[in-house]
Amino acid sequence: MSEIAGNATHPAVVAIDGPAGSGKSTIAKRLAEALGLEYLDTGAMYRAVTFAVLDGGIDPADETAVAALVGPLDIVVRGSGTVLVEGTDATEAIRTAEVNRNVSVVAAQAAVRTELVGRQRAWAKARGGGVLEGRDIGSAVFPDAMAKIYLTASPQVRAERRAHQIGQTDPAEIRAMADELARRDELDSTRAIDPLAQAEGAIRFDTSDLTIDEVVAELAVLVRARAAEVAADAGGDGG
Fold it and tell me: How far apart are CA 60 and CA 34, in angstroms?
């Protein structure tokens, strides 16, 4: 049972945003476990759409075709990390280099963002809250989130982490990863709709020199303190 209370009207949302490779997924999942909340990787939803677009032979830049696909698309993103697209396990398929290259193009489209933001809000409201991570949770999806956190790290550190995850040790490949992450940062932060940015009121955390355990421990303290403040304010309003 969650130690942080929320409901459909006022979901207890912890919004974690940041660029690719900043540790969002691992940290958000661990933080959700620590707080007894459910966890949603919203980036996996955009990847799932991108996978479906590519799998269907659709040009990722064809906004009309992408819009027609995303509305009825069946996507299930589980807290365990499993991702189903139209009932098929796409957990590994959404992490390919081809999806990496195209996800920013698909995610920038208005129809895609409108559809998935609606699904993300419904997910949180149905659970009375949760830990959601992505690029625009605190700025666009839940600007009134109970707690907003912006995780970041240098492109080199982020590339090294990605390389470690897949067992890559070639310095040239790691540099290429760093360049790709920087490219995605540029695309995500300059898109016209819901660009990647630190949300107003968000706590900025540079994870470059911290372990996962250290980040999770510090964030758990901050979120619990914020939840206590919200509860105290609610009690005062009702008194």
Answer: 38
